Amino acid sequence: MTYTLAGLPMFGGLGEERLRALEAVARARRYAAGQVLCTEGDPADQLIVLLEGRVKAGRVSAEGREVVLTVEAAPVAFDKTALLVDGTHRATRTAMTAVRVAYLPRAAVMELVASERSVAARMLRTLAATVRDLDERLLDAATRDVPSRVASWLVRRCAGGRVPLHGGQAGLGAEIGATRVSVNRALRGFERRGLIEIGAGEVVVLDPRLLARLAAVPAPPP
């Protein structure tokens, strides 16, 4: 699905005039799968808004191995924290599919944050959710086995019943600190118990409450 800037949550409350002004300063670009949008360590002097496609965020370990941190799908903006503190990109973003992005100058974004309370509030909520998700992932990695981590990951994302696997089972494993083989084993075990169905690029959660009990996390709302 293709989005516009208005489809990004942090810009959802802006009026048409403000949106047109943003679009006027935005630089649009398309990338083929495998191309790099930004590189870890480069200055984050623009807000990168993904409008179409999927992107993975990765870092290189001391041994030279790529560690996939997350896989994200449009619409989403990258490295908002780095933009706020005039820092650098914390990860290398690589297109997993053909993507369309908009680059917004830092000055334009900061002016919006300063003048539009709705933008500032939405950005704070997004950053808070990111920190909370990171805390949960770190806790899961430290205290849970792989099946519990997989169950917890699914429960947190299954509000609509269907959970897309944007990066496949390997991408899920990268997010929770597990191998693709161990993720597949956990998913197959849940499927045999009737808790989920494994589809093409997604998991359908059939019994979220039992899955939540297995993961020892709060059940999603009915």
Automatic annotation (TrEMBL):
Q: Which UniProt keywords apply?
A: DNA-binding, Transcription, Transcription regulation
Q: Which residues form the Cyclic nucleotide-binding domain?
A: 10-130
List the Gene3D superfamilies. Jelly Rolls, Winged helix-like DNA-binding domain superfamily/Winged helix DNA-binding domain
GO cellular component, as recorded:
cytosol
Q: Which Pfam families match?
A: cNMP_binding, HTH_Crp_2
Where is the HTH crp-type domain positioned along the sequence?
A: 144-209
Give the protein name, as stated in the record: CRP-like cAMP-binding protein
